Amino acid sequence: MPHQEYFLHQITNRIRQSLELSEILNAAVEEIRLFLKVDRVKIYRFDSDGSGEVIAESLEEDTLPSLLNLKFPATDIPNRDRQLFIKARQRVIVDVAAGRRITTRLDCQKTGEQLSEVDIRYAPIDPCHVQYLTAMGVQASLVTPILHGKHLWGLLAVHHRTPRPYSEGELQIIQLIVDQVSIAISQSDLLTRAREQARYEAIVNQVSQLLHCPLSVNEIRQRVLEQAVTALNGSGGRLYIIAEPTGISAQLYTTGVQPRQPFLEEIPLWKNLIEGMGKSDQKQYKIDSIEQWQRYNQKLLHSQSAAWNISEQSHRVITLNQLQADPCLAPLATAFEGTPIRSIALIPLQFHSSQVGCLTIFRNGYNSEIYWAGRNTSDERNKMPRASFEAWREQKFDQAPSWSPEELKLAKAIGVHLYMAIAQKRVESIIRYQASHDALTRLPNRLLFDEQLALALANSKQHPEILGVAFLDLDRFKVVNDTLGHATGDRLLQQVATRLKQCLRNCDTIARWGGDEFTLLFPHLTSEEEISKIAQKILDKLSIPFAIDNQELYVTASLGIALCPYDAEDAQTLLKHADAAMYRAKQQGRNAYQLFAAEMHHQAVNQLTLEGDLRRALAREEFVLYYQPQVEIATGRIVGLEALIRWQHPQLGFVSPGEFIPLAEEIGLISPIGQWVLQTACIQHQAWRTEGFPPLRVAVNLSARQFHQSHLTKIILQTLEATEIDPQYLELEITETAAMQDVDFTITILRQLREMGLHITIDDFGTGYSSLNVLKHFPLNTLKIDRSFVKDIVENSHDAAIAQTIVALGQGLKMQVLAEGVETSQQLSFLHSMHCDLAQGYYFCPPVPATEIGKLLRQSYLSVNLNPPLCS
Asked: CB 3.0-4.6 Å disulfide test: which of 68, 339, 662, 836 passes with 57?
């Protein structure tokens, strides 16, 4: 017994000293053979198909032939014995000379003297088994199952050339060693998984870092593809990115071995193969509209965990043999025949029905050889027992490699990161495109036109030449909208834009200024006559009837033109003079063009008069604040009020903020006016509190000039102290354009304001040039969807897509989203369906004086959707 304990201690130490399973198994069989003094001890491991292989063996020299690394067919261990090992956990001892088979329950807690016939079973040996063992030169065998979890992992077999009994102590020692081996297998499995997980995470991190490095987009995607192919043991790969809705064409990146068809992704059959991994919707792979693509991407981009993303993503592994065997896919096989490619993994870059491309990894065919213990035939074992265990080599050529679940998991993780990176780029591209282009006509908008005009003016100063700027307004377009509907009006505007582009030179620019108004830029003019000819060509082109829904529409236009350097040399004055000339054309009967003339200068005089009145308005207390409620869509509660300035002019009456705010910006009065608005709104808030109303947040707009003044935080702090208002009830709104003028300055100021406890909102979101990478650094509370996207949100799918994207963006960044300009119940319902948080607009209530707010606050509405507006 001391010898047995010493042996057990020795083998346990050897097992514990090694981390590699192969070393542990070799040590186990070697020590068991020496301990039992037998001829052979081997460990036999099962494969998933039921066959097995000897993976560890210890032999007494010149006794029995070696079986190491030989494969055994599944029929060598009948299923009944397999079930016996795993279910009953029974050890089998065979004495060939005695013709006896003994099975013993391993879970029995009794001692040898206490074991009953139930615990030990004696049975004659199967004649086939006798021949099987005899062929190996074995007269005595002991087989003990090796379990891994609840599964039969393998067998420990002890063979001897002569009959050999085993004592109870020996059997106990062997079983303890087998249990140690089972533990080692579990530890090795955990270690292998940990190593694989570490490798998996390292590769994913490398891909993620590469996707966000400062290289060019094309270089990044090429490197990611190469890294993916290497990590997945591929021989080649392709990264196909579909065309963007903004007009960027499809892109293809390749590396390594490639199919014979260079434009594989453009073959309809291949597209269908990829689409079949999703919901079999033809539109899933070809995204042909902005709103279709934007519908789902934000949810993925702003997810806190990518685990569920991988489970959402489909994949497909297909071999060349499968392509050749499938009648529907057989034509695709020709693209791979004649190449070494035999296995293809398709990883779509998608989330739900939003797909931006596909990652494809190829693997070449391979040859293999297996050494069987005797020829592996399909003969029934009981009829044809194995006569020889001489190694027989089986060779297989040009086989298709398989893909493990871990490899596919890694491939899909890389696909997710690729999708997220491409999606983010596309969101930024779409926002930039929408910020600079009109969604209806796809023409440049005011922002882009202003940039192009500034560039043209700078160029004209370097190379003296005539430059023309024109305003074009459709005559009586409102009649079309009012009689035939906005849908017809929109289609008419699209056709007008197409015709206008046909009239222009390659160097000219046209933009939609707003509504039915267009601006045009004519650089490199040689004379006034040249632009007059272009203007007349435009009028003639528009005079041709438009056909919409089998109905002819006749449209005319009024065109005003200002020339640089004759009429002005700066953009603002040129536009102002062109606008004045356009109104002169309308006054003269429409359907005409008019060059700016000196007598039109009276508009400038009127502007100066208005400027003088504006400078005196603050001192004369002609400004007044109106307030418009901000409503929580889900509950219908008023949760805030936006303070809006109005100018009560002594002679002109109410002057629109659109008229005097830009003028105040221009002449430098916007800061004192803004300071008056801030202080007045805070005083009014405290007055409502005194009247007993619950505290509501009051929103005050900051102009770009006001926001960028150096002492803004000091002014706000002084106002808060003077009015004794709690900072959490003051909301400051800045436009997206103002925020992006100086990003570093904006981040600094916003952080100071947030630290003071103020609520920060980005106004007119979607109309500027904000980058998602920059936006995430802004300490914001709310994103405000510009009214231009809300106006036609129900009818215009592009506006709906942008609003949906902004809502998803706000949710991802944990911000509230407020939609302004809500005027109909349909708009409100649409916003509610996309989970927008807040809304304001004439549907609830127009801006009203402070005295009217008290009435609103006394009202109680359970649901905005089921009740009338707050006020009429």
From this structure: 68
